[in-house]
Design goal:
This protein has about 210 residues and is mostly helical. It has seven helices and no strands. The longest helix is centred in the middle third of the chain and has 35 residues.
Length: about 210
């Protein structure tokens, strides 16, 4: 079992456990948690409750929903194909999973770029966010704290996607030796793990923010 596999398993277990027990604390019972998850899995789009007045506004909202949905779908496909062989078999990505992975990756890059353009303005930090930072832990700022955390997650996803994509591009060129290629592969793996953890946390916080 490689070090990367051990770190991945531990990190995912911690994240899943933290989310599960946070939901249990909020909803009081595991049955309520399961019902909540079943309902939210069908409708977790970030802007699903966005209110629009103008027709152009409704069109933009629909485009944003579609971009977010495609980005999330591609993310889960990439995470599943990339980490399944590592977590369950301790092996490298090969075969049909590799084909799916490299096929979906460009679509994820495009949808993530589109999401950055569509949400960058609304996800900028403002005075309310700095108020949350100054009064971190204040129960009266729960909704603003979740909103601030989703913004942090949004920018972290964009930041972590840079080394993730750059390592793949650099591997295509004969610029590095064997050790350099091995380093790029390790960097790609840890960047993917970091991005996956942040993205899962962002999806969870977004679900909390828009949950009924």
């Amino acid at each position: 079992m490689t070090i990367f596999r051990i770190i991945s398993i531990i990190a995912l277990l911690i994240l899943v456990g933290a989310v599960a027990f946070d939901l249990k604390r909020r909803l009081r019972s595991w049955k309520a948690v399961m019902e909540f998850l079943r309902g939210e899995m069908k409708n977790f789009v970030l802007v699903r409750r966005e209110k629009t007045v103008l027709r152009s506004g409704r069109t933009i909202a629909m485009v944003r929903k579609m971009v977010y949905a495609v980005a999330v779908l591609c993310f889960f496909i990439l995470a599943g194909t990339g980490f399944a062989p590592i977590l369950f078999a301790g092996d490298h990505l090969t075969g049909i999973l590799l084909v799916i992975h490299v096929t979906v990756a460009p679509l994820f890059a495009l949808s993530l770029s589109a999401a950055a353009l569509l949400w960058a303005h609304s996800q900028r930090f403002n005075e309310d966010d700095w108020r949350v930072v100054r009064h971190l832990g204040d129960s009266g700022l729960r909704e603003k704290t979740i909103r601030f955390a989703t913004k942090v997650g949004f920018w972290l996803i964009l930041l972590l996607s840079l080394p993730l994509m750059l390592t793949v591009i650099l591997e295509l060129f004969p610029l590095f030796g064997t050790e350099g290629e091995a380093f790029l592969i390790r960097l790609h793996g840890y960047s993917a793990l970091s991005l996956m953890l942040v993205a899962l946390g962002h999806i969870y916080l977004t679900t909390l923010r828009y949950a009924k």
